[in-house]
Amino acid sequence: MTGRIIGLGSYIPKKVVTNDDFAKFLDTSDEWITERTGIKERHIADHITEKPSTMAVEAAKKAIEDAGIDPSQIDLIVTACTTPDLVIPSMSCVVQEAIGATENCGCFDVNSACPGFVAAWNTVQSFIETGNSKYALCIGSECNSNFANFQDRGTCILFGDGAGAAVLKADGTAKPNQFIMRSSGARGGCLRCEAARQPDRWEEEGFKTATSFYMQGREVFKFAVTEVPQIIKDLSEKFSFDLENDVDLFILHQANARIIEATAKKLGIPRDRFPMNIMNYGNASSASIPMLLTQLKQEGKIKPGMKLVMASFGAGLTWDANYIVY
Ligand code: ACO
User: Fold this and answer.
1) Of all atoms in ligand 1, which is nearest to the CA of residue 22?
2) Residue 197 has what pLDDT?
3) CB 167 within 8 A of CB 10
4) On the CB side of 207, how many CA atoms lie within 13 Å of its CA?
5) 129-148 pLDDT, tens per residue?
6) What CATH number does domain 178-325 carry, 3.40.50.720, 3.40.50.2000, 3.50.50.60, 3.40.47.10?
7) pLDDT of amino acid 254
8) Quick check: is 43 catalytic?
9) What is d(CA 258, CA 245) in angstroms, rounded to the nearest whole number?
10) Helix, strand, or coil here: 88?
């Protein structure tokens, strides 16, 4: 048994923040942001009705509706989130209650920064492949704006908020989940955010700003354009498929259009097989891949049987890639 996507859904916050909006209070411009990142606008949560947990619920409801199943059939919920509104209970438990899943449903969250959705996917697949789940919800939901420092022009312009969800159904005819996951704690210092609630540290110089995203952009950029193409190559060798002929679309984490373009170039694959929505949503961290999958389904650009490579990278450092049949 392997999980196959039978439903997709997303929730995008209503408020749109354009590059020109940032230029009103930061020394930046639409031209700089567009040229360096490909981003034109992003959606920012209102933090009252739109939080990681409420967005996860809305995305999950849409994915279940799309799957055409009853919520009582869901027996596992795994949510990826690095920017939660709740420490406990887990976001997955909040989703369980809101959708009306039964108490036979296992619920927990994973924290793996931007690659979190792929990490959650692999976790869900392991449950399905060992016979411990038949219908699972895999979610990515993020409010990056909770942790962005809006005085730091090098980071705040990158991020957006949102959520995406997939319903996976155990399928005896699907090929096994094929993936590679890698991490480097040793290189993690270039992308950090400390927990704010450490009272004994409030007096430390720089502690307050350390509770917002800290990023050495160039380091992260170099890491991404090196490791993402490499892990995709390694995936194709490990599972004996040809990148040119055996992959319809490459679904990459939407962090920077230049990173995606560089990956396509290094792999020698035409850029049009790397769909992007970063121009409208920015970097939505672990929500970016399920948001993109949902959009592609709604636009009729992914169809059953299509072969996809998903790949993501982010804080940790962590990076991963999967080869799946939609
Ligand atoms: N507007 C105008 N100028 C800016 C801005 C801005 N928004 N941001 C930075 N600059 C300036 C810098 O201050 C610097 O000026 P200086 O030369 O006078 O010092 C200059 O632009 C160049 O800065 P760099 O940081 O070297 O610019 P770079 O071309 O590397 O682009 C960027 C910065 C867009 C952040 C890029 O490095 C990048 O995308 N890195 C990867 C980020 C990423 O993908 N992060 C993933 C996070 S995932 C997670 O897990 C949370």
Assistant:
1) 7
2) 86
3) no
4) 11
5) 999 999 999 999 999 999 99
6) 3.40.47.10
7) 98
8) no
9) 24
10) coil
The DSSP string of 43-77 is: EE--SSS--HHHHHHHHHHHHHHHHT--GGG--EE
Catalytic one among 146, 177, 283, 322?
Answer: 283
**For this structure, is 253 an active site residue?**
yes
- Read off the tokens for 20: 């020109």
Residue with structure tokens 């891949």? 289
Which H helix or E strand runs over 36? helix 30-37
User: Tens of pLDDT along 154-194?
Assistant: 999 999 999 999 999 999 998 899 999 999 999 999 999 99
Mean pLDDT by 10 residues, the chain (326 residues): 97 98 97 98 97 98 98 98 96 98 98 97 97 98 96 96 98 93 97 91 89 95 98 98 98 98 98 98 98 98 96 98 96
Domain ranges (residues) in the chain: 2-171, 178-325
What is the model's pTM? 0.96
Q: Residue 138 carries which side chain, given as an amino acid letter? A: C
pLDDT at residue 199, as a whole number: 85
Asked if 57 and 164 count as a contact pair (C-beta separation under 8 A), the reply is no
Give domain 2-171's CATH superfamily: Thiolase/Chalcone synthase (3.40.47.10)
Which atom of ligand 1 is the closest one to the Cα of 316? 50
Residue 217 Cα: closest atom of ligand 1 = 37
Q: Does the beta carbon of 217 sit less than 6 angstroms from any atom of ligand 1?
A: yes
Query: Would residue 114 show up in a list of annotated catalytic residues for this protein?
Result: yes
Residue 64 near residue 167, CB atoms below 8 Å = yes
Q: What integer pLDDT is reported at residue 208 of this predicted model?
A: 85
Do residues 96 and 77 lie in contact, with contact meaning Cβ atoms separated by under 8 Å?
yes
What single DSSP character describes residue 281?
Answer: H
Q: Which of 6, 210, 9, 243 is nearest to 128 (CA)?
A: 6
